[in-house]
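Troubleshooting log. The previous structure file for this entry was overwritten by mistake, so regenerating from the original sequence record. Sequence copied from the archived sheet and checked twice against the printout by T.R.
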Amino acid sequence: MDVHDEQGVPGTAVLTADAGQRAAPPRTLLLVDDEPNILASLKRLLRRDAYHILTAGSGQEGLDVLASHAVDVIVSDQRMPGMLGADFLRKAKLLCPQTIRIMLSGYTELQAVTDAVNEGAIFKFLTKPWEDHQLRAHIAEAFRLKGIDDDNVRLNAQLRDANQALAAANAAMQALVRQQQHQISRDEVSLGIARELLQFLPLPVIGLDEDGMIAFINAAAANLFERGAALLGNEAAIVLPQLFDGQGAPCLAAIDGQPYTVAVHPMGLHSRSRGSLVTLSRHGAVT
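Regenerated output below.
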């Protein structure tokens, strides 16, 4: 069946769009009626509202439009050959549940309309002849509700994406924490082994933190000074001045009449510690 656009020019397509509306704007309205003059009247009435208007001359043509176009609001006649408006709107709901659907008819078939409303297939039922202001208001309200629905879908999608991103970030953070905990455990084991080794070394060893405070004394150093416990937590240059010159640099020290070479080994080169180890080794007889 040929259809006509708003200017009455014959065509071969089963649907038409408003002249000048080449790119579909966000608000798209589908008008379905088997009477071309009704479609033309509706398009003239609604053109001022800047909708992108598609038309179809039957329920099947309307379904074809829905299969190939994104439609926001549908206005359909009830009495059409081949498929009643209520049946078309039921199928439209299944095909495009996000659309807002309005029935426009000159027949008051209350049972068919009631059933369609109860099934959620129809948002509004308006009778012919329509009142222009009321029809435009109902269609505007349908687009407003569609906009709210679209916003809800968009916000839900954003919330879902944000939750997924947060879950991914939490998983990455937990993996990092586990990795750091594993590294800490390994460092603690390594530190314990190092302390055990230093304790059993025959060479006196004193551990200093980055401020020069005594943080560790092995057994050999504790026996050498005989007061190792009292040295911990004190500044080495003050409690053991014999190991350092006046500027705090290591020197050749005499301890219990024996000469010791004092060496300081920084620990920041191959470890995260910024302290140092002080070792004392016998140098020879005092002259």
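The beta strands are 28-32, 52-56, 73-77, 100-105, 124-127, 205-208, 214-217, 252-255, 258-266, 276-282. Archived copy saved in two places this time.
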